[in-house]
Amino acid sequence: MCNAITALIGPQQYNAGLEAIHLLKSGSHLHDTHPNLDYWGSVWSGFAIIVNRSTFTHRDTGAAPTDYDLLVTSGTHKQCTLDVHDLGLKLSYPPGTGVAVAGKVLRHGVKGWEGGERICQARFMKDAVHDRLGQPRPNWVCHENYISLTSK
User: Fold this and answer.
1) How far apart are CA 85 and CA 87, in angstroms?
2) Which helix (H) or strand (E) element contains residue 36?
3) Per-residue pLDDT of the chain (152 residues; tens, 9 = 90+)
């Protein structure tokens, strides 16, 4: 599902991620491969699971400025807010919510939550990985990218 969301919201990022994973699976860009590489089904080069932790307001230094991070929250918590500091946004962030954020550009974080367990699946792309594999940085996504999807 996260791959499909990425293809919709950032098609160039999706294509670069997909090609990077194909190149890694081919083994031509690695000194040695790991047997679990064949099971990697994501276009994202990085994945972190944050369990019951606050995250200070930060920028993701390893990403390209035009890349989205995809943050998906789950658990049993009742109340949570994702702070996107640079935009002055405080987004409701209950279980089942997904948020795409330009993590290198926009400071974001979660100070706390109420009522139960909180799990965040953070997907991100490492610019250095894409650079080494010769993948271009995506252009900034803008509304023109979506006009063609609705005008037919």
Assistant:
1) 5
2) none
3) 999 999 999 999 999 999 998 888 887 766 667 777 788 889 998 999 999 999 999 999 999 999 999 999 999 999 999 999 999 999 999 999 999 999 999 999 999 999 999 999 999 999 999 998 899 999 888 877 777 767 65
Cβ neighbours, 10 Å, residue 102: 21
Tokens of 42: 């994501």
37: its two tokens: 């590489």
**Distance between CA atoms of residues 41 and 38, nearest Å:** 8
Q: Which two tokens stand for residue 135?
A: 């993948």
Alpha helices, DSSP H, located in the chain = 2-9, 11-26, 127-132, 144-150
Number of H helices, E strands in the chain: 4, 9
